[in-house]
Amino acid sequence: MRTTRSRLLFIILLPALLLAWYVGDILGLEGWIAWLANQPGVTTAFQHPESGRSDALTTLISFSLLTPIALCLLLVILVLLVKALEAVFVPLRVPMWLSTPVVAGAFIYGMYTTSPSWLPMSLYALGIVARAYLVYSYGQVPLPH
Asked: Using an 8 Å Cβ cutoff, are 37 and 127 in contact?
């Protein structure tokens, strides 16, 4: 039973990794990462000769631990909003399933209208993570093509 499960995992995981590598090469992900890492606000990050690489690793670990937590928290908030809207729709005799598209539409509209306030900081954070990845992986940041 255990060997069957590990073989199945290997049969699924290996093609998925190969596909991700191939798609990443086609889409030029390294170029996008280099572009993000060379944004004006992040070009001075992780340049210390002694601690730059360890700071980059700390940033990558923090990002990989905190991002799933933040995404799960956002998902919980969205589900709670859907459920709260269902409680409002039931007495009004509106179909309960309509609460999901209403919340999704409101969320998308809210993200679009407030994008000037959160987009620059998000690009800065992605730039820091991209620079941390390149500094930790390669020791330096290549110039974008």
From this structure: yes
